[in-house]
Amino acid sequence: MGMKRKIKKKRKIQPKTATSIKQSLGKAVQHHQAGRLQKAEQLYRKILSRSPSNPDALHYLGVLEHQQGRYEKAIEYLEKSLVSSPDNEKALNNLGITLRRLSRHREALSCFEQAAALNPDSPEVHNNLANAYRKLGEIDKALTSYQRAVSLNPGFAQAHNNLGNILRQLGRFDKALLSYKTAGDLTPDDAGIHNNIGITLQLQGRLSHALTSFKHALKIAPGYPEGQNNLGNLLMEKGMVEEASVCYKKAISIRPNFSEAHSNLLLSMNYSSKAGSHEIFDAHKKWAAQHVAESHTVNWDQDCAADKKQRLRIGYVSPDFRRHPVSCFIEPILTKHNQDDFEIFCYANVVREDGVTARFKALPIIWRNIYPLGDQEAADLIIRDSIDILVDLAGHTQGNRILLFRRKPAPLQVTYLGYPNTTGLFEMDYRITDNLADPPGISDDFCSEKIVRLDHGFLCYQPVKDAPEPSALPALSNGFVTFGSFNNLAKTTPQVIELWAKILLAVPNSRLIMKYKSLADNDTREEVLEIFKSAGIDNAYERIELLGFTPTLSEHLKMYNRIDLALDTFPYNGTTTTCEALWMGVPVITLAGENHSARVGVSILSQVNLFEAITGDREEYLKTAVDLAMDTNRLAKLRSGLRNIVSRSPLTDGALFLRSLEAAYQKMWERWCEKQKI
Question: For a surface tag, which of 119, 503, 510, 593 has the fewest beta carbons within 10 Å of its beta carbon?
Answer without folding.
Answer: 119
